[in-house]
Amino acid sequence: MASDRELKQRIRSVKSIGKITSAMKMVANSQVRRVEKLALEGRAYAKKLNEVVGQLSQHIKDSSNPLFEERVIEKTGVIVIGADKGLCGAYNSSLARAAIEVLSGLGEGKLAKLLCLGSKAERALVRAGYKPDKVYANWEYSSAFAIELAEICADWFLKKEVDEVILVFTDAISMLDCQAKSFKFLPLVAAKHNTLDLGTIYSDMIKMDKGDESTNFVEYIFEPDLDSALNVILPAYMNAVVAQVMLESKTSEIRSRLRAMTSATENAENLTYDLTLQYYRARQNSITTEIIEISSGAEALKG
Fold it and tell me: What is the dihedral angle through the alpha carbons of 193, 197, 200, 201, rounded to the nearest 10 degrees?
């Protein structure tokens, strides 16, 4: 059994750790509300843009917009949206597994571009044998950053450096559930077929067939023409999707950290309680032993 001094030292250590995890819990709790608000507000916007682009894409036979071009997949670009910090449960490991699964499934020589957000994600990819072309460390969400990433994706695709762009991120499904997944961003297949599925965003019009009376097909009149309309709407759609993916990932990270720090703080409190009981029992045994020794000595002196 541990001595009184050892138990007191362990109690102090556990209390110290508990203070740190409690502080991190409070920080995560203050951050999660702000990020959740942005993510929830962005979901409706991204969903509606997806439906509008899906409607417009029914006229794609009259458009030459290259973002809808579906090619034979010979080169792939992948963007992994991860974290820079740990202490967030299984968030980083789940994302790493999903990213490595996507990368390993591409086939030999098909990975042309690899971009990574977050140093934790970078280290996981490097350990798996993949070296990112560019890493954004200590990243924070901003609309300007989302636009920059969307432009990078479009530039890769339009210059035919890649035939598809895949985003790997973590979907903030609920407070207790986040899921690492991949999303084929380019070509704009999801928009064309209304299959966008990001953080509970899903299209109400999965199938759109002009000949099907049950679908909500809308006829548009384009001024001056369809391509001009798409040139305005498609960049807005791409920016919204990238922004939403970043917000979903950031929300998942902070929620995971909040859960992990809450659990760690509760465990520290429980362990402190158990160690304190052990300490009191040890002290009681020590005092009882001392009393017995004194009584025995007194009895011996009498005899």
Answer: -40
pLDDT mean over 195-222: 52
CA-to-CA separations, 100 to 11, 75, 122, 127, in angstroms, rounded: 41, 17, 11, 10
| 15 domain-assigned | no
Separation of alpha carbons 73 and 71, rounded Å = 6
Length of the chain in terms of residues written: 303
Strand extents, DSSP E, 111-176: 111-117, 134-136, 164-174
Residue at 287 is within a domain:
no
Q: Is 85 exposed, middle or buried (0-12, 13-18, 19+ CB in 10 A)?
A: middle
CATH of the domain at 205: 3.40.1380.10
For residue 11, tell me if it sits in a domain: no
Give the domain extent around 64. 25-257
pLDDT at 229: 78
Whole-number CA gyration radius for the chain: 29
Number of Cβ within 10 Å of residue 14's Cβ equals 20
65-87 residue pLDDT tens: 788 888 899 999 999 999 999 88
How many domains would you assign to the chain? Answer: 1
* Three-class secondary structure of residue 79 per DSSP: strand
Cβ-Cβ contacts under 8 Å for 229 (sequence gap 6 or more): 56, 220, 222
What tokens were used for 278?
Answer: 């052990």
Over pLDDT 70: what percentage of the chain?
A: 86
Is residue 290, in this structure, part of any structural domain at all?
no
